[in-house]
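About this split. The held-out portion is used to measure sequence recovery: a designer receives only the structure tokens and must propose an amino acid at every position. Recovery is the fraction of positions where the proposal matches the reference. Here is one held-out target exactly as it appears in the evaluation file.
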């Protein structure tokens, strides 16, 4: 439309028309088709760049485009420099999200009808919110995002049906999306259309989708898994894993709505036995052994226990662990334990009686290793019930929190009276030294609290700092002064004390997520002890190879390198099997699927031959001279691993050799661009699996990791309205305007900044042109120089604004061929003398024009004065 709301969009529409025309020129000549050569490329002669395939449960957005633009600009630059460029693109459909969304849609139809009629009060609330969004205003420089009904609910839980409506689907179309495979046929072609409109210089013949819907990619993943297993890189083991009870399976990073990167945190669960007789509230537990269960990270300090802490208004329960043992803790902790083999009924916490923290205050306890024969449960207002078990054991010698809380109770009779705490539960208990720290002595918590002048539990910031200080110094410099391991360093004694507690049955191992994790099904995740298939990341020899690969890679930024070093430091076995979702079956255990991050580690190699396998069809279902069943393990080994010629194969040798030649020409890839959030999983997995499967000369050469797109100095976010899909941005601003903005958008990374390229190649060059035009004055500019300027700037701006560049090249400069392959501008060495002379000339012109202007102004004033006196 040329106008809208009184504004004219004629220039934008002209740009859109130019972009459409240019894409037709490109498509007609197949400009971005990448062909290998028979001889190996010389350094710099070819450029293979790629991008993590996006997940296909919706439209691509500007966040995708921001990261992708870094690859697109780099590829376009190398293409201009004369390199043979391969930039392919594929679409990820493996895993939980699509299946979860399809199932959610089916549940809504079952509950609310087809089409569903959602609850009346929700609809009213949504209508009010929508009206507010429509009538509200936003600053003109802000993206204004109207929240759909799908995301307006106060609960934050969206109706999947409304989300599908927001995609522009009719009710009859939405119904079909109960079948997860319908998502795979709907969204990938739309994403490809959007990327074509964006001007992506992609060889689309090599595009593909994942999952068993693509039989060739399915075969590739099966080979990869069998290969890793034969190398001893995949084993079956029982391990603690982040787990979704609702989904009934582990929840990896890509399966999570929040909590990506969160790992299981392992504690020692101290069993503090409640002494009989029990109070009336615990009467139903008579005849059993009952324990308060306190989760600790410092088992070596248990000798110095003076009491236990509970939250007075916290909610607790007494849960059956065996027929005779009961643990008192929070429901949340009990659920984690139930999935770790600590529940009378596996995976189902059995609560015998619900309790509050107040019910527990004053319970006499016999706690493991404590030098105090009996200690008591006391109130503490800062106990967290969403961390650990809600029961905390108190060691005031080495915990500033415990020291201050105990000090408060001892020194404030009113506080004791408020919670019904008897003097004999508190006053007789003094600090028991456990650890000597050279800097703080054997009562570290007391010393640090006094030094920092911490007065009460309300000094939260100071207490946090004190805790960090005492814990760190205690672990690194401390020496045990009591117990079986007296004289040993704390870092040596810690595991020994823990082992002793576990072996004596005085404690158990307990694990929970480090932070809250939500699955894409809307379920809060726990930690479960699961028996499944794992990739042995972290194994010393394999880790050494990964570190060797990393050391030779170009990462463009120290922050990125540090991220990889940190990840290689902690990454351990990774669960690679799932029982729910879409994907490829584990070849030797078809009950399970390959997890979505584990089918995505070396697929960059698949790009090199995808066009030969799939004949340009992203689903691998069209007629092809190669059949999926012909892609045996021997064939894959021959192509990618330098394996022997597969004599057993009935595939023509010409095709086999062509696939091998394609791979050998393009590999290794030169650059992979990604968001920095993938360092902790996908990108590190990519390094590991390449080092296991491929020869050194095929290991990755470079990763470029960017931060989040910053719009209006804010992270792009659906919730704030600072959000656009790629399609919306192109329709509203045009592709090249969007690309220009993405080049100018910040991500706080200093290296590889296209903002600087934009400044130099566009703004600075424009300023130089303007300066020259100013110097020429009425005489006008030199025609040949202007044409040379247009030639240079067109080439320089082409990686960022290729449609504009192509149009100027063909229509204004009347050049043949395509500017995207026209070559980088050639510049003579700078003549510094000429530059100085030009600077002198510019300054002189400005000075003379100012003097002339002043003289003219003075003359006019004199003439006006004479005229007035005459009258």
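Reference sequence for scoring:
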């Amino acid at each position: 439309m040329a106008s809208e709301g009184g504004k004219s969009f004629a220039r934008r529409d002209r740009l859109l028309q130019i972009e459409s025309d240019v894409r037709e020129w490109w498509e007609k000549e197949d400009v971005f088709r990448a062909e290998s050569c028979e001889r190996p490329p010389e350094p710099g002669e070819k450029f293979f760049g790629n991008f993590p395939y996006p997940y296909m449960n919706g439209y691509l957005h500007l966040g995708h485009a921001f990261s992708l633009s870094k690859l697109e600009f780099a590829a376009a630059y190398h293409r201009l420099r004369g390199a043979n460029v391969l930039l392919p693109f594929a679409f990820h459909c493996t895993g939980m999200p699509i299946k979860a969304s399809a199932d959610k849609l089916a549940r809504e139809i079952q509950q609310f009808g087809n089409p569903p009629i959602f609850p009346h009060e929700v609809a009213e609330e949504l209508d009010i919110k929508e009206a507010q969004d429509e009538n509200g205003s936003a600053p003109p420089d802000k993206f204004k995002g109207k929240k759909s009904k799908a995301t307006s609910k106060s609960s934050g839980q969206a109706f999947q049906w409304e989300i599908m409506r927001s995609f522009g689907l009719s009710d009859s179309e939405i119904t079909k999306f109960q079948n997860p495979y319908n998502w795979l046929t709907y969204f990938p072609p739309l994403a490809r259309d959007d990327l074509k409109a964006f001007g992506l210089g992609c060889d689309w013949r090599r595009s593909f989708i994942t999952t068993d819907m693509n039989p060739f990619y399915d075969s590739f993943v099966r080979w990869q898994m069998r290969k890793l297993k034969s190398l001893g890189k995949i084993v079956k083991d029982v391990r603690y894993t982040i787990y979704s009870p609702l989904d009934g399976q582990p929840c990896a990073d890509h399966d999570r709505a929040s909590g990506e990167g969160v790992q299981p945190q392992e504690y020692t669960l101290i069993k503090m036995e409640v002494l009989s007789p029990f109070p009336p509230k615990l009467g139903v537990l008579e005849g059993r052994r009952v324990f308060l269960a306190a989760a600790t990270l410092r088992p070596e300090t248990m000798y110095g226990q003076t009491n236990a802490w509970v939250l007075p208004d916290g909610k607790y329960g007494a849960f059956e662990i065996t027929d005779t043992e009961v643990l008192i803790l929070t429901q949340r902790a009990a659920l984690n334990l139930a999935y770790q083999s600590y529940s009378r009924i596996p995976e189902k916490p059995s609560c015998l009686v619900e309790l509050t923290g107040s019910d527990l205050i004053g319970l006499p306890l016999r706690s493991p290793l404590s030098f105090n024969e009996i200690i008591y449960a006391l109130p503490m207002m800062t106990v967290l019930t969403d961390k650990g078990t809600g029961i905390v054991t108190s060691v005031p010698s080495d915990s500033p929190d415990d020291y201050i809380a105990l000090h408060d109770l001892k020194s404030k009779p009113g506080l004791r009276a408020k919670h019904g705490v008897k003097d004999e539960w508190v006053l007789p208990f003094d600090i028991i030294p456990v650890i000597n720290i050279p800097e703080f002595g054997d009562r570290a918590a007391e010393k640090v609290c006094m030094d920092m002048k911490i007065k009460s539990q309300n000094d939260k910031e100071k207490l946090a700092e004190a805790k960090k200080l005492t814990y760190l110094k205690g672990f690194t410099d401390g020496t045990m002064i009591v117990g079986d391991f007296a004289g040993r360093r704390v870092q040596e004694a810690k595991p020994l004390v823990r082992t002793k507690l576990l072996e004596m049955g005085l404690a158990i191992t307990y694990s929970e997520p480090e932070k809250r994790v939500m699955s894409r099904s809307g379920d809060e995740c726990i930690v479960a002890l699961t028996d499944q298939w794992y990739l042995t990341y972290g194994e010393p020899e394999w880790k050494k190879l990964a570190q060797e690969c990393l050391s030779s890679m170009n990462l463009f930024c120290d922050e990125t390198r540090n991220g990889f070093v940190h990840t290689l430091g902690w990454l351990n076995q990774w669960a690679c099997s799932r029982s729910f979702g879409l994907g490829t079956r584990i070849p030797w255990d078809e009950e399970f699927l390959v997890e979505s991050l584990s089918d995505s580690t070396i697929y960059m190699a698949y790009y090199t031959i995808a066009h030969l396998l799939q004949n340009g069809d992203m689903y691998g279902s069209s007629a092809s001279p190669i059949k999926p069943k012909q892609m045996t393990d021997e064939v894959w080994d021959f192509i990618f691993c330098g394996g022997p010629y597969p004599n057993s194969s009935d595939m023509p040798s010409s095709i086999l050799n062509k696939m091998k030649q394609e791979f050998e020409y393009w590999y290794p890839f030169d650059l992979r661009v990604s968001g920095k959030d993938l360092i902790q999983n996908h990108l590190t997995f990519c390094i590991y699996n390449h080092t296991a499967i491929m020869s050194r000369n095929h290991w990755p050469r470079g990763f470029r990791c960017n931060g989040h797109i910053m719009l209006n100095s804010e992270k792009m976010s659906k919730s704030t309205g600072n959000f656009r899909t790629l399609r919306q941005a192109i329709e509203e601003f045009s592709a090249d305007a969007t690309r220009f903005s993405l080049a100018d958008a910040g991500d706080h990374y200093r290296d590889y900044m296209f903002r600087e390229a934009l400044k130099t190649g566009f703004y600075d060059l424009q300023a130089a042109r303007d300066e020259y035009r100013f110097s020429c004055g009425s005489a006008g500019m030199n025609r040949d120089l202007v044409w040379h300027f247009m030639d240079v700037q067109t080439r320089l701006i082409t990686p960022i604004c290729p449609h504009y560049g192509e149009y100027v090249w063909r229509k204004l400069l009347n050049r043949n061929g395509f500017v995207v392959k026209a070559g980088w501008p050639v510049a003579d060495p700078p003549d510094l003398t000429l530059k100085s002379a030009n600077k002198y000339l510019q300054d002189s012109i400005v000075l003379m024009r100012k003097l002339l202007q002043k003289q003219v102004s003075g003359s006019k004033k004199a003439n006006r004065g004479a005229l007035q006196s005459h009258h």
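Annotator remark: The first strand starts at residue 3 and ends at 4.
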